[in-house]
Design goal:
By secondary structure, the chain is an alpha/beta fold. The protein has a single domain, classed as 3-Layer(aba) Sandwich (Rossmann fold). The chain has 7 helices and 10 strands. A 6-stranded mixed β-sheet has the order 6-7-8-3-9-10, sandwiched between helices. Helix 4 packs parallel to helix 5.
Length: 259
């Protein structure tokens, strides 16, 4: 599980200090899937860096399974808006990369089998020998998701992984993410600007206020399932969408007042 306990964070510049997070507290249960949304520049990506142990909070605690996060951890997988695949490696080799870094007892054959299982799950098995430049943007992002899960992380962090894609590809990858979740056992935190994406994928949506960001609002999505896109057009999802849109408007308004 992921827990933020009264987290404050700031960045120092040559002339001043920029307060980014202020008394931020939230909890993602084991095997849960939470989404964080909020105004641009409010500190959402800072949250992912704190979870990953890439930076330490100025004050407060970030915990994974009850242990304070102070350094980068091998039990975390990450996927970003830019898939950053290595062009000199084929897709299979790109997916296997974390297994060269994270300590494991797998044989070369077992590593390939695990990579191929994931590629088959996302519909890329026939492209395992292709170079990244030979694939579309959506296909490269699928490969990136496979790479983030190859070492079977306990926690998966998604930092706007579908933000640069067209609407149709983005929706297709929402379904892909749902399939990956069904076959794996991981706790997931996604940062997104897309409210529909947050509603479709997450069990809970957390709205951050304007900078310095703190908890403004959170809501359980309480969906019946997430194996098709039709649920986004139900009265329940429409209600969630309107509630979250109003919360984003409020966050932006309050941010302007504070500045």
């Amino acid at each position: 599980m992921i827990e933020f306990d009264g987290v404050y964070h700031k960045f120092s510049t040559k002339t001043s200090e920029l307060q980014v997070l202020k008394n931020l507290s939230f909890y993602v249960p084991k095997s849960g899937f939470s989404a964080i949304i909020g105004p641009s520049g409010c500190g959402k990506s800072t949250v992912t860096k704190l979870v990953a142990g890439l930076i330490k909070p100025y004050n407060g605690r970030v915990l994974l399974n009850g242990e304070m996060v102070q350094t980068p951890r091998s039990n975390i997988g990450m996927a970003f808006q830019n898939p950053v695949l290595l062009e000199w490696r084929n897709i299979l080799q790109n997916v296997m990369l974390p297994l060269e870094i994270v300590k494991n007892n797998l044989t070369d054959l077992q590593k390939k089998e695990r990579a191929r299982e994931l590629l088959n799950l996302v519909g890329l098995i026939e492209y395992e020998n292709n170079r990244p430049s030979e694939l579309s943007g959506g296909m490269r992002q699928r490969a990136s998701l496979c790479r983030s899960l190859i070492h079977q992380p306990e926690v998966l962090i998604l930092d706007e992984p579908f933000g640069a894609l067209d609407a149709f590809t983005r929706e297709d990858l929402w379904l892909t993410m749902s399939r990956l979740r069904e076959t794996g056992s991981f706790t997931c935190l996604i940062i997104t600007h897309d409210i529909r994406e947050a509603i479709f994928l997450a069990d809970e949506v957390i709205v951050l206020s304007g900078r310095p960001a703190t908890n403004q609002f959170s809501i359980k999505t309480e969906k019946e399932n997430n194996d098709n896109l039709d649920q986004l057009y139900t009265p329940h999802s429409t209600k969630l969408l309107n509630i979250l849109r109003e919360q984003i408007k409020l966050a932006r308004k309050n941010e302007m007042v504070e500045r």
